[in-house]
Amino acid sequence: MGRAAVFGGSFNPIHLGHLLMADEMLERLRLDRVIFVPAAAPPHKPPALLAPAEHRYEMVRLAVAGHPGFEVSDLELRRRGPSYTVDTLEALAERGDELFLVVGSETFLDLLSWRRPRRIAELARLVVVPRTGSAFDPEGAAAQKVLREIEAERFVTAEEAITPATVVVVHAASLPISSSDLRARARAGRSLDYRVPEAVAAYVRAHRLYAGDAA
Q1: Which terminus of the chain has fewer CB atoms gathered within 10 Å of its CB, N or C?
Q2: How far is CA 118 from CA 3, 152, 165, in A?
C-alpha cells in the first residue's frame, strides 16, 4: 500500500507541462507514484477532436518511461463506454493505495456535473491545481458550493495537515504549453521539440497524428 496520485486526461498529446506538474505533485505531496490514466472516451470532449485512444495511451507510455515514480494505466481503454472518473477510482482503490485525484481548478468548479462527485471525493483526496493566472478563489461562492456538495470541510495547502475531509490546493510550477497549440503545430508541420518528450514528437511524426485535424 502506498500514496498514489491519479492524473487523468485526454493527453492529446501529453507534453512537458503535464510531466512537470506530475513530478511536482510527487514531491510536494510525498507520493510513491503518479498514475497517468488516458481517457478512452472523455464525456466532456468531442471524440472528433481526439487522436485514437491507443495512440494517446502509447504517447503517455513513451513519455513516462524511465521515471521511477510514474506509471500509466490502460484501465479506461479496456472499459467500454464513457470514461467516468468514479469508475476508474473504484477500480484503482482495490489496489489498497491511498489515492489523490489531481484536477485543474476549472475542472474542480465543474465537478458537480460529473458522475457521482461525492463518491469521487470519498475514494480519493482531491488535489486542485490552479492554472497560472487563473482567478480561482477557494473562499469564493463557486468553490465553497462544490466543497459543501462533496461534504468536504475545507481547503488546505500541501504543507498543512491533509485529512480525508480536506481538499488540497497546490500552486504548482507550470509551462506555457497547451495540447491545442501542439496539435496546431503538428498540422502545420512545425516543430514540437522542447514541448514534448523526443519519443512523443517522433511518434506524432511517424503516425502523422493531427495532420488532418480541423481544430
Answers
A1: N
A2: 21, 9, 11
Helix (H) or strand (E) holding 8: strand 3-9
CATH homologous superfamily, domain 3-175: HUPs (3.40.50.620)
| Residue 16: CA count within 13 A, CB half-sphere | 12
- The pLDDT confidence band at residue 134, using thresholds 50, 70 and 90, is confident
Please give the full DSSP string across 38-81, using - where no structure is assigned: E-SS-TTS-GGGSPPHHHHHHHHHHHHTT-TTEEE--HHHHS-S
Place of cell 497524428: 209
Neighbours of 92 (CB within 10 A): 20
User: What is the bridge-based pairing of β-strands 33-38 and 3-9?
Assistant: parallel
Residue among 163, 102, 111 nearest 130 (CA): 102
**pLDDT for the residue 215:** 47
